[in-house]
Amino acid sequence: MKKKSWVMSMASVVMISLFVTACGGNTTSNTASTAAPAADKSAATPAAAGKKSSLTVGMVTDIGGVNDNSFNQSAWEGLKSFESQSGGKVDYLQSQSDADYVTNLNQFVKNKRSLIWGIGFMMGDAMKQVADANKDSKFAIIDAVVDAPNVESVTFKENEGSYLVGVVAGLMTKTNKIGFVGGAEIPVIKRFELGFVAGVKAVNPNAKVVINYTGAFNAPDQGKAAAATIYNDGADIIFHAAGSTGDGVFNEAIERKKKNKDIWVIGVDKDQSTTFGNDVTLTSMMKRVNEAVIRVSTDLDKNNFQGGKVQDLGLAENGVGLPEKNPNIPADILKKVHEYEVKIVNKEITVPTAK
Questions:
Q1: Cα 4 to the chain's mean position, in Å?
Q2: Which pLDDT value is given to residue 253?
Q3: Domain residue extents for the chain
Q4: Considering Cα of 292, then 295, then 301, then 305, what sign does the dihedral take?
Q5: Where do runs of H (alpha helix) occur along 114-217?
Q6: For residue 44, what is the DSSP state?
Q7: What is the pLDDT of residue 250?
Q8: Which of 28, 115, 226, 241 maximizes the CB count within 10 A of its CB?
Q9: Which of 258, 263, 265, 267 is nearest to 285 (CA)?
């Protein structure tokens, strides 16, 4: 399958020109809704000014739900921005389990949506099945590659952005023990893990990284338990890539901060300091899903849908990286992060990835 990259625009760009990461909600499966978090106003402008779009765009969430404070929420914020700026109409169906994927995708086909989004690696097989059976419908998917002429796939080089937050963790740990909490042990999350560990080791080979996979993207209680175990073992920084399971990592850290414990969490997908605060969020490995969703939806609105192609976004495409503001990271460490970013973009460093 032919790959294509484009540089994603940002309303604000990091001093380390970075960035562009996996999943609770209140709607029920098979019920369309638009009741969700407010759109990210920093997202790219979709349609030409003054032209009202006639597109109807549906989004099927992964099991983490549209309010996961992570990539489902980011995708929905992107669609809401597309709606408010273009005049198109958007809605979503929430998946309570993987058994809902095909049902929800088919519901949007039946409702004749102009574009149907699937959010998450685990939806790949379901989208392939539905796309092959409905060749006149257009689909797009985040974090998976679906080989079909009516599906545009968007993937990210999470390992590159995770390498940079690994550099931060390796330089800022005081205990030389660092944790990683993942959702399911699938290729997209392994990219987070491998990139993170490589970044830590690049600057601090003596640091120990403890890996814990909870097996779920929608279980904050499991995330909290995993974080408690890692912090009890002496770690002072945990990076999570676990969707709303990661909320539990933050909750555990917040409780310990109240007891004056010097511990931190590195967030994922969004700038999670906006949800959990700067007191506990060291930084975040942002994955600009919202902008990718806007870009593909806008391309369709301009009759430029790239069905059958893959957008693969890393540091060079501004697809992954750090937030614009990092008040908890000293300037000298941010400078070091930038140095590593340049080396990755220039291919002087090859960041390991999942096979």
A1: 20
A2: 97
A3: 3-157+288-313, 158-287+319-345
A4: negative
A5: 124-133, 158-172, 187-203
A6: P
A7: 98
A8: 241
A9: 267
Strand 320-321 with 281-287, pairing:
antiparallel
From start to end of 225-273, where are the E strands?
Answer: 237-241, 264-269
Question: In the numeric block, which tokens belong to residue 172?
Answer: 């800022």
**Residue-by-residue DSSP string for 139-157:** EEEES-----TTEEEEEE-
Q: Residue 167 is encoded by which pair of tokens? A: 């550099």
Beta carbons within 8 Å of 3's beta carbon, 6+ residues apart: 309, 310, 311, 312
CA 139 to chain centre: 19
* pLDDT for the residue numbered 65: 85
Residue 89, helix vs strand vs coil: strand
State the burial class of residue 4 (Cβ atoms within 10 Å of its Cβ: 0-12, 13-18, 19+). exposed
Which letter, b or e, does each residue of 165-184 get, where b requires 16 or more Cβ atoms within 10 Å of its Cβ?
bbbbbbbbbeeebbbbbbbb
Homologous superfamily of 158-287+319-345 in CATH? Response regulator (3.40.50.2300)
Question: Do residues 217 and 23 lie in contact, with contact meaning Cβ atoms separated by under 8 Å?
Answer: yes
Torsion sign (Cα): 98, 103, 107, 113: positive
Residue-wise burial string across 141-150, b where 16 or more C-beta atoms lie within 10 A, e elsewhere: bbbbbbebeb
pLDDT band at 50, cuts 50/70/90? low
Look at residue 51 in the predicted model and tell me its pLDDT.
Answer: 67
3-157+288-313 and 158-287+319-345 have identical folds = yes
- Interatomic CA distance for residues 5 and 93, integer angstroms: 29
Q: Which residue has the tokens 């000293």?
A: 330
CA distance 185 to 193: 10
Architecture of domain 3-157+288-313: 3-Layer(aba) Sandwich (3.40)
